[in-house]
Amino acid sequence: MRYSPRMPGSVMPGAGAYPQVPQAQTVAANSQILGYLGRALSLEFSAGQHYLAQASLAKFRQEIAYAENFVILANEEFQHANLITDRMVAQGALPAGSILRPAGPATNMVEALRSCEEREVALIQLYSEASQYCANFGAHEDLMLFNRLLEEEQSQLMRVQTWLDEYYRSLTMQQQPHRSFV
């Protein structure tokens, strides 16, 4: 069967039918920025791996809602890793190999959430430093990426802290004695 523009239901793909891939940068990549991207990739993969481990531990403790939240966090970190890899490739580089920090054990939800809080703070510190460098260096596209990642990590940290507050409140509610007016 051959294509005919008069064929019922036939549609020619337009320019928007195919994803646009950013063109590779033609200027030499800045080694400092590539260093930030490489460290960010390692931290994002480490955080994603840690959150998946916390999800599994939470499932074993029958804390299913927290397990689901950890999986969501892990997926967000892997999306960040995807953005970072895209940026590296746009600068003509490939990830050199990430060094992952091992997932830490947690015997209860407070330990799990505190360990996640620590991972988020490390990412926030890196993105703050990287954003400052890119602003000073005039690397606009890198600055936009690091600022976006910084905002998303700050949002994730706030979520983790909210879950921790909710967990403490639920413990307080469970420990209050039942009072009777009789």
UniProtKB/TrEMBL annotation:
<dbReference type="GO" id="GO:0008199">
    <property type="term" value="F:ferric iron binding"/>
</dbReference>
<protein>
    <submittedName>
        <fullName>Ferritin</fullName>
    </submittedName>
</protein>
<dbReference type="InterPro" id="IPR009040">
    <property type="entry name" value="Ferritin-like_diiron"/>
</dbReference>
<dbReference type="Pfam" id="PF00210">
    <property type="entry name" value="Ferritin"/>
</dbReference>
<feature type="domain" description="Ferritin-like diiron">
    <location>
        <begin position="27"/>
        <end position="171"/>
    </location>
</feature>
<dbReference type="InterPro" id="IPR012347">
    <property type="entry name" value="Ferritin-like"/>
</dbReference>
<dbReference type="InterPro" id="IPR008331">
    <property type="entry name" value="Ferritin_DPS_dom"/>
</dbReference>
<dbReference type="InterPro" id="IPR009078">
    <property type="entry name" value="Ferritin-like_SF"/>
</dbReference>
